[in-house]
Amino acid sequence: MIRKPFRPPTFVRPDVKNSEPPQKKRRISSETSESSREPLVPVENPALPPRDPNERYYTVLWRKYTNKKNKTWDGDGVLSILNGYAVLADTVNGKELGRGPCGRPLLPGSILTVGGKEVEIDSVISKDDYLAGRPLLGMPLQTSLEQPKPLSVQKCLPFQNMPNRTGVSRAGSGPRPTVMPHAARKHFKNPLLSSTIVPKTKSLLPQPRHDPEQPNSLVMKRPTSYPKGKQIVDVVVDPILGRHLRDHQRDGVKFLYECVMGMRCEGEGAIMADEMGLGKTLQTITLLWTLMKQNPIYGSPPVVTKALIVCPAGLVDNWRKEFRKWLGNERIGVYVADAKNKKIANFTMGKAYNIMIIGYEMLRTVQDELKRGSGVDIVIADEGHRLKTANNKAMLAIQSLNTERRIILSGTPLQNDLSEFFTAIDFVNPNLLGKRSAFKREFENPIMRSRQPNASGAELEKGEARWKELVSLTSQFMIRRTAEVLAKYLPPKTEHIVFCKPTVAQAAAYRTILSSPIFTAALGNTDMALQLITVLKKVCNSPSLLKAKDSDDTPSEMLQSLFPLLPPNVLSSHASSAKLRVLDSLLHKIYTTTSEKIVIVSNYTTTLDMIERLLISLSYSFLRLDGSIPSSKRQALVEKFNNNSQKSTFAFLLSAKSGGVGLNLIGASRIVLFDIDWNPATDLQAMARIHRDGQKLPCKIYRFLVKGALDEKIFQRQVMKMGLANAVVDNKASAGSFSKEELRDLFRLDGREGLQTHDLLGCSCEGFGVSEVEEVSTPEVEGVSDEDEEGEAWLGLRKASQIDVEELEKQIEKRKGNGSTGKQPKLRMLMEYRHIDTSLLKEMDEERVEEMTAVVDDDVLVGVLKEPDSRVSFILTKSSS
């Protein structure tokens, strides 16, 4: 390309003659002059638009929309809202990042989307600060709603080369001074409540995490020994939990802490045997939170880093909700192992989770994975009475973790015998009581022999000494509180043991089975005897249940041989059930005379089916929870029942085996145990479903038994087991048992008048409702006085003129003789009840009926008793009020 020489541009061609540019022509107007020019017209500026009342300004954090799991903020910004539109601007360069409609009120922490950006509100700023540009310049917002920072903090704020959240330096962004972003200048917010933490000082003395001098502070016991060169610091329960603890719960937390820290005995385990409803869960959460945040040795890491909670599968979600209720989601990481979350490494190898909740069944499948990582520091076994045998797979799985700190939570640690109790003790504190054979020889056998009515004086003395020694050893690491401590927190409750007289058809069916060849064969065959027990339990509920299909049905051979012996109308109709007739009357009285709701519990789904048909026929609304309901849906049913009125859901049908543990059915104030279980703990747990925290009404508990049948014999066995449990666990003396002779005829149907259980007790109240405890407390028992007035207490609610003095003296001598020989069973549990023979109501006058009604303390049940065709024959009643 040929380049041409540069030629400067000429915009005005010069004059050719003199080379000068032409002069500008002067404008001359001959038509107008300055004097004749019109004046300027004044024009006013337009009025300012009215101020938007919803005009708002905020400092915010923003980021581009992303699907990443761990999100970070891209920078700080200012959000202005005017006339329903939000405008987002960056604080680095003031550039507008986006805009969009926004009509809802915003608060610090609110999240919204503006122009494709995710925005989180940080704080509110005033219009003056926004118009002055202080947020964009990084200047302190003296006129904002935020509190001004202390002078010492403001002086320390760097203003040069401070990078923003994106890491880009602001030094070359312009003449504007570079400062720390507004959001970054805010103080870090501790996830704990700052008011519960003791502020740090320059003192050389060790400082506890929480102030032990605060009112109602809960301070743990200090250890007596510590490593050389270390100091002791107080361990104080976090006030977040401490202020919710009742007196007995504060004592329980202290007890558990001393046990797991090895301050009470050689081991580091404990058994919390509080009855249902006393808050074992809250006490456990308080203990774990304290151990995970504090250590009595100053400068040492927390006592516990990883904790494992093992419980029945139906309680896993309850535990998760309790942690969330008391500690929230931000303070502690809780990993729930279930069918959806099976990656145990998230708990063992990660740092996000400190607690894992898992069911007994699933624990066996993941025990090897739990051994990885740093291991488990403490194990909590909820409903620990499930660990009954030494070869239990769940127990072996826990023992394989080699965790020394172990805690059992169980309202009934002793259910059947002392052998199971030894298993629980050896689990929490191995080898504390020696080997199993030595325990059986030195403790179990002598104690059981001393409980027999025919025990000799030497056996009584030896058994009493061994019992006291066992109580002394176990009290070091086992704490037991009964529901009596809740008397000032919960409304009163009344328990009625209702003995129903079988119908004619029911009694005939029962005797037909006992007179059949199957009964003779069952006496010599253990398996057939167990099958016959199941058959008779169903007959007690209703003979028609023999034809119903159930998962635990007896073999068809036995049933097929029984069907021809029983009338077809009895097998096809529920009308022959005495219990169902009593339940029908009870439901009618409750529904028509009160606004209360009821829970009905049974061990059999076929029995629940029968009761369900009764409720449908009466047009009573109900809910049902049994083994067919998934665990994830059970809590929703419970909440629905508790929150609805009587008209919406009047009854709740509950299977004792699937829902008798861990459910709070405080929406009902009455509960019926339709049948009885061999294990008394099963019934006790079901009875505790309504008498719990949150209950506002007095509770009535009804236990239905068929008089003289297998139901009554099983109840007698329960009393024997509970007597043993009271003696060892509750540390109650004077517990006894029935002799083998008194219980050998297990299958016999006692059709006579009166009550066999009452006769075995040897009680002299004659069914008039005077408890044996009152009789023992009267001077008559000791033979101090023989006045007619005190004799009245012996013979019931009779007038003094009706007392036979000679008969009274004979009874006194008889009782003294029985007391000296030890033949009289001392079943204190049943002596606390009022014994009422309902057949006497028909013979009493009006005044006496009113006295009996006051003893029953239940207008609904009294109404059932007064019905002409009532099937209730005898009542044992006890009221906490």
Features:
about 900 residues; alpha/beta; eight-stranded mixed β-sheet; 32 helices; 21 strands; about 35% helix
Short description:
The protein is an alpha/beta fold.
Structural overview:
It is a single chain. This protein is an alpha/beta fold and 881 residues long. It folds into five domains: 56-155, no CATH class; 239-479, Tandem AAA-ATPase domain (Rossmann fold); 496-573; 576-708, 3-Layer(aba) Sandwich (Rossmann fold), CATH 3.40.50; 753-879, no CATH class. Helices cover 35% and strands 13% of the residues. A hairpin with a 5-residue loop joins β3 and β4.
Q: Main beta sheet, described?
A: 8 strands, mixed
CATH architecture field of the largest domain: 3-Layer(aba) Sandwich
- Rounded to the nearest angstrom, the radius of gyration is 41 Å
Class from helix and strand fractions: alpha/beta
- Helix percentage: 25-40%
Mean pLDDT across residues? 75
Strand percentage: 5-15%
Report how far the terminal alpha carbons are from each other: 117 Å
In the CATH scheme, the class of the largest domain would be Alpha Beta
CATH superfamily of the largest domain: Tandem AAA-ATPase domain
Say what the CATH topology of the largest domain is: Rossmann fold
